[in-house]
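#struct-queue
[09:14] JT: dropping the first one here, sequence first, then the structure tokens:
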Amino acid sequence: MRRRKSRPRPLLQSLHIGDPTAENEMATLSEYYLQTHEYQQSLHGHVNLAVGRKGSGKTALFIQLRDKIRSDKRNVVVDLRPEGYQLIKLKENMLAHLSEGSRQHLITAFWEYLILLEVAHKLLEKDQYTYKHNHADARALSGTQSDLQGRRFFG
């Protein structure tokens, strides 16, 4: 039987532009991500907040920036994704019993605590080997604790 030569697929049919949801493409996103001016501005620290409609690329921007910054082992990047249900329960159970001023204070304190807790967890996770096996380095790093005491991170 004679084989037919397969024709190459048209260019448009051969393109893969990814899943509409960046979370589903974390492993392959870098293969086709277009580094825009916004990406460059964010990478150089000129952007503090990304705002846009659903599907506009905020998560893809975050994933690409996170991976780029994490590629330098000296950096620590924390993915902060609190469970929505838990925050709703906090609001239902606690905030209803507080005055407006107390609510604002509790929400601010909660977020400060959550962020610091996540940063501490990530630092310990990243430096786990050093703390378990290299005690000389761990003693040198413990000096940074006194440097951090008394410093305000928020506000």
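[09:21] JT: and here's the second one, same format:
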Amino acid sequence: MVASSAISYTRIYKSQAEREHLAAAFGLNHASSALFGPAPQLQTVAGFTVFKTSMTLMVLGAIWGLLTSTRLLRGKKTLVVGSCC
């Protein structure tokens, strides 16, 4: 995932002007800043890769936490022996 993110970044954003535009677009997006925090140094391949990887790990961690808490807090089913239907 990390390697593909770095390769795709260099292929999509070839010039420094395109990279500056990407950083400005993420900087103006308050929703992504509120969810994932500020995105520093998106003008570099390493900065973009770290931001995208951490964003993916945060989403996966949140889903994992929800599934774990649901499993732990779910009530146990009781089986009554001899009852019909």
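[09:30] RK: nice, looked through the second one.
[09:31] RK: Helices lie at 2-12, 16-28, 30-36, 45-73.
[09:31] JT: good to know. Residues 41 and 72 are 40 Å apart (CA to CA).
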